[in-house]
Amino acid sequence: MTRKKAYHHGNLRQALIDAAFELIEERGVPALTLREVARRAGVSHAAPKRHFADRSALVAALAEHGFRGLAAHVESVRASRQPRDSAERLRALGVAYIEYAIAHPAHLRVMFSPEVADKTRYPELQRAADAVHDMLHGGIEKAQREGLVRRGDPNALAFAAWSMVHGCATLLIDGQARRTPVRTLIESAVRTLHDGLEPGAAVSAARTGRRAGR
Amino acid sequence: MTRKKAYHHGNLRQALIDAAFELIEERGVPALTLREVARRAGVSHAAPKRHFADRSALVAALAEHGFRGLAAHVESVRASRQPRDSAERLRALGVAYIEYAIAHPAHLRVMFSPEVADKTRYPELQRAADAVHDMLHGGIEKAQREGLVRRGDPNALAFAAWSMVHGCATLLIDGQARRTPVRTLIESAVRTLHDGLEPGAAVSAARTGRRAGR
DNA sequence: ACCTGAACACCGTTCAAGT
DNA sequence: ACCTGAACACCGTTCAAGT
Fold first, then answer.
1. For strand C, is any atom closer than 7 Å to the CB of A35?
2. Which residue from A148, A212, B25, B185 could staple onto A143, CB 3.0 to 4.6 Å apart?
3. Nucleotide nearest residue A43, measured CA to C1'
4. What is the CATH number of domain B1-52?
5. Average pLDDT of chain A?
């Protein structure tokens, strides 16, 4: 209500970010334009320059926002769902990632936009992305220590887990789901990440104990 | 050598596609511009209109090219590597997908560009993408029949496999590999797709027979 | 310190005109 | 049938000038 006035002389930076997300959600990433964002925030087209050096800097800020939001969502799920062991906890992390992508497709698209693929130019973005990666990495190591994830290079295992979850999320928000409910697809991806495609895994998944733990 | 002359009055369409891929490889997808493509092909900026209705139509043609190239690469790998059973064949398909992405990152980016996410507007693109999907779907069903992939909705299993392979490919071409050789990461993703993260799978993977096959 | 307005080079798209 | 050249509205970016 009273926001519109505060924008003009206040936190223009945040106003631009809000307007940018609205724009992406309405008309897609290709429609994201500095001039349109400025227009929606009610300032001249040159005003964003004070807050974002160029278009890439705005995209980087949006991506950073996305990574922080994802980390927060993962944390909140962890707090509310109370996973019983580290394997369930890891599974919850994957589901949270996919949920976040579906709830905020604009955020995920901008987080992995080619424009900001080189994160060395944006240290804050780098840190935000690393924080999410560290959650995954830590989750893998913890589950390994408890014998709930097989042994091996944690980096390589974390990468595999990230690939599955990220691939699932991006395919779903790009509308690649076909003839099958989204819920079923998510469950299939998360279960396959744990059990694999091979038939034997179904048996081992039904076991309560472990077999080749440390 | 004699190509340049042939372009001006000949297969301009193909010349534009070639120029577009060169441009994307050199300067990335955001730099893809109809005017620059026309310039490189040596024609006026309005000439592409005869072959591509608008920018999206060009991107769709590039994406279609990408899907056909991927299908061809998968076929050639299948012919040369002679997989012994349907599980190995499925694994080879995944590796081929990732190899293709790394060899032709511009193709993969354009294949999954948000601009052409809605493939209903481009039937030829739809068909090319479906052909790749059908290969995967068929591979899953065949492996199921041989008892080398667990039972369940083939669509859901194919989606999980696609998620892993596609996620791996996109993360790698976006330079998300960290501190670990690419080869190791690919092997981890492909192995995890088959075995899962859980410890029991390592044992079952070592078995020669099946256990819960049909 | 923060924002404006004019300016420049670029882009997508259209369309009458050329061959 | 295929391509050109001028035109229009839009964009990113820069910069002197305003408050």
1. no
2. A148
3. C3
4. 1.10.10.60
5. 89
Strand D reaches within 7 A of the B46 CB: yes
- Strand nucleotide closest to residue A10 (CA to C1'): C2
Q: Coil, strand, or helix at residue B81?
A: helix
Domain ranges of chain B: 1-52, 55-212
pTM: 0.89
Q: Which residue has the tokens 């026309």?
A: B38
Check: CB of residue A61 under 8 Å from CB of residue A49.
no
Provide the CATH number for the domain formed by A55-212 in this structure: 1.10.357.10
Which nucleotide in the DNA or RNA is closest to residue B43, CA to C1'? D3
Is residue B17 pLDDT above 60, yes or no? yes
The answer to whether A1-52 and A55-212 have equal CATH topology is no
Residue with minimal CA–C1' distance to D2 is B50
Q: Model confidence over A154-205: pLDDT tens digits? A: 999 999 999 999 999 999 998 888 789 999 999 999 999 999 999 975 454 4
**CA A20, C1' D10: Å apart?**
18
Q: What is the DSSP track for A40-81? A: HHTS-TTGGGGT-SSHHHHHHHHHHHHHHHHHHHHHHHHHHH
The string of pLDDT tens digits covering residues A13-69 is 999 999 999 999 999 888 999 999 999 999 999 999 999 999 999 999 999 999 999
CA of A12 to C1' of C1 (A): 13
| Nearest-neighbour CA in chain B from A53: distance (Å) | 18
Rounded to whole angstroms, what are the CA distances from B36 to A54, A90, B17, B48? Answer: 22, 47, 12, 11
Looking at residue A9, what is its pLDDT?
A: 60
Q: Which nucleotides of D are covered by protein (CB under 7 A)?
A: 2-7, 10-16
User: What is the SS3 assignment for B29?
Assistant: helix
Residue B3 C-alpha, separation from nearest chain A C-alpha, in angstroms: 32
List pLDDT tens digits, range B92-134.
999 999 999 999 999 999 999 888 888 999 999 999 999 999 9
